[in-house]
Design brief:
The chain is an alpha/beta fold. The chain has eleven helices and nine strands. The structure holds glyceraldehyde-3-phosphate and zinc ion.
């Protein structure tokens, strides 16, 4: 019985100068593998389901959410359940009843004033329904198959003064920041702007969240945590491990051999990335 509140996991990590790893799941095998990896390290973990992954399930949230919740309940480490990159207000409003303890509301693509207005109303709803809420300011590129934004382009980074105002005016519990990472990288070659991270850590009094973490080498992940990142979102690294394992072990009929190989590979990836943060 170890379904945990994401907010409590993040705050406990922050108090210890650490970060919680949060992995995006698509299949049941992802959820099983992430939990097995976390159990190997003895660390808490967050399972997150993105709006994109719900779309893959024909828009049905409950089947995969309930399966992930059951995996969390059976885990030997605390596991949070988080609804990630939500743009749809309808999906947001299903979060509490589907067992999620937290959500990330993503209006980062909108101009500042609209991002603030929609995020504030999402935060009001989330808090009234007992959910911890994360939002994003300064867009981390490469979402939903979009071409990666140039993380070095002007305006592609989170501005510390804007971030301070955004958090105070929206009431969110955590902030995803654009500091040089980008989503969906299949090589671990990205580099973060550590000077900007230091300024953001000083300016913002809620935990900071790193997105697009699959593209970062271990040294950058460790430096991000040392610099104040408290939740680290990882998705593509699992999918790379899964796909490689399936390609290698593909059998003509029975899916169990290649899904076993995929789960084993994702477990190793999850354990290694959790260890890199701590
Ligand atoms: O919210 C999800 C993450 O930002 C995952 O990004 O797939 O590039 O690791 P990634
Ligand atoms: Zn993300």
């Amino acid at each position: 019985m170890t379904l945990a509140a994401t907010g409590e996991l993040v705050l406990a990590a922050a108090a210890a100068g650490r970060a919680v790893a949060a992995f995006n799941i698509i299949t049941l095998e992802h959820a099983e593998a992430v939990i097995a990896g976390a159990e190997q390290t003895g660390k808490p973990v967050v399972l997150q389901l993105s709006e994109n992954a719900v779309r893959f399930r024909d828009g049905r949230l409950l089947p995969i959410a309930l399966a992930a919740g059951a995996c969390a309940e059976a885990a030997a480490v605390p596991v949070g359940l988080h609804l990630d990159h939500v743009k749809s207000p309808e999906l947001l409003r299903q979060a509490a009843d589907a067992g999620f303890g937290s959500v990330m509301y993503d209006a980062a693509h909108l101009p500042y004033a609209e991002n603030l207005e929609t995020t504030r109303s999402a935060a009001d709803w989330a808090h009234a329904n007992g959910l911890w809420i994360e939002a994003e300011l300064g867009e981390v590129g490469g979402k939903n198959g979009a071409a990666p934004l140039d993380p070095h382009a002007p305006g592609a980074r989170t501005d510390p003064d804007e971030a301070r105002r955004f958090v105070a005016d929206s009431g969110v519990d955590a902030l995803a920041v654009a500091i040089g990472s980008t989503h969906a990288m299949t090589s671990r070659t990205a580099a973060l702007d550590h000077i900007l991270l230091a300024r953001l850590t000083k300016a913002v009094d809620v935990p900071l969240v790193l997105h697009g973490s699959s593209g970062l080498p271990d040294s950058e992940l460790a430096a991000a945590v040392a610099g104040g990142i408290r939740k680290v979102n990882i998705g593509t690294a699992l999918n790379v491990a899964m796909t490689e394992a399936i390609r290698t072990h593909l059998t003509p009929a029975d899916p169990r051999p290649y899904l076993t190989a995929a789960r084993t590979a994702m477990t190793a990836t999850a354990a290694a990335m959790i260890s890199a943060l701590n």
